[in-house]
Amino acid sequence: MRILAVDAGTGTQDILLFDSSAPPESSLKLIVPAATQIAARRIRRATRERRAVVLTGVTMGGGPCTWALDEHLKAGLKAYATPDAARTFDDDLDVVQRIGVTVVSEDEARRFDDARHIEMADLDLEAIRRALAAFEVDSDFDGLALACLDHGAAPPGYSDRLFRFEHLRRVVEERNDLRAFAYLPGEVPDYLTRARAMLGCVDTDAPVVFLDTGPAAALGALQDPIVAQQDEQLVINLGNMHALAFHLRGTRIYSLFEHHTGLLSGEETESLSEGLMAGTLRHEDVFGSHGHGVFYVTAGERPSNRRPFVAVTGPQRAKLSASALKPYFAVPHGDMMVSGCFGLVWAFAEKHPDHRDEILAALGVSGVDAA
């Protein structure tokens, strides 16, 4: 079973071609610029050339491409975007137009001959196929597993940080398991517009699964045998944009917090983590410092009084390298940068039970009940 896993982040998109017939360590891996970084570079090229930009395609992750567009507009240059592409910058198109972007139809977009046209999308399967072909790698796959971080389409005037965190809370309240964040395409809520746009870029009939990047990284970290053998874990994913921590017993969740990595020093991350483990960290403290929030599960089994094993993953993990938390840097199957991808492969197995045993055996995941 060959599964292509694509974890779309802010700094990088991490790509894994997993083959259940071979050791996971030998899987082909690509760590390349994130789609938003690529779009940002293209916008900045247009800025240097003093050309207007026309943004088409679908809703994708913001961050770097949003900052590049802001610089382009401040340089006095024009920007046009079709409605779906424009929602990359804000779900409310009136807001997009107020920042200086002219929203146009698909037909109108094609008429700007002198502008630089930029296709917006978190997923470019054709580019991945070309990369694989350059190394004589067969680009056929039997399944596809995709991840991104989606704030969701918040109602006008409602905090997108709070809207996303309420989604995380709802998922855990409905079924307390990291694997509950995994969706088949038809199960993805309508309000997860970035996720749905990413799935809309799929050009194959192969079975697909979607999973949020935070739970994907945690599921990947749990595949490190040192992490897996612990009774309780605090798994911290320090991504390039978001920091998400789960207090876990296996895949079961006791509590979690989410913040923005760039707003946190190592000491602040340590303090938040200590507060989560102690049960003293308040939602208001995180949200009030421009984070997303804190959630404690009140139903079911309670955490023990023992301190959980602290495991860290993510490209910004060095923030905690000298921490008093004394964290273990998880390396599932020998590679931290594809923690999320290995979590995606696990999620694929759970949502496609015909292949579950084969995939989990290859991953070395045992003694875990079906989701």
Walkthrough of the structure:
- With 371 residues, the chain is of the alpha/beta class.
- Among the domains are: 86 residues, Rossmann fold (3-Layer(aba) Sandwich), CATH 3.40.50; 106 residues, Nucleotidyltransferase, domain 5.
- Helix content is 34%, strand content 22%.
- It is built from 14 helices and 15 strands.
- The chain has a six-stranded mixed β-sheet, sandwiched between helices. It has a five-stranded mixed β-sheet with strand order 3-2-1-8-9, sandwiched between helices.
- A hairpin with a 2-residue loop joins strand 11 and strand 12.
- Helix 1 runs parallel beside helix 2 and helix 13 packs antiparallel against helix 14.
- The protein is globular, with a radius of gyration of 21 Å.
Layout: helices, strands, pairs:
Elements (H helix, E strand, L loop, with lengths): L1 E7 L3 E8 L8 E6 L1 H15 L3 E5 L6 H11 L4 E3 L1 H4 L6 H6 L3 E2 L2 H4 L6 E5 L4 H10 L8 E6 L11 H15 L18 H8 L7 E5 H9 L3 H4 L4 E6 L3 E8 L2 E9 L5 H13 L4 H5 L5 E4 L12 E5 L14 E2 L9 H13 L4 H8 L8
Parallel strand pairs: 1-8, 4-5, 4-7, 5-6, 8-9, 10-14, 14-15
Antiparallel strand pairs: 1-2, 2-3, 10-11, 11-12, 12-13
Helix pairs in contact: 1-2, 9-13, 13-14
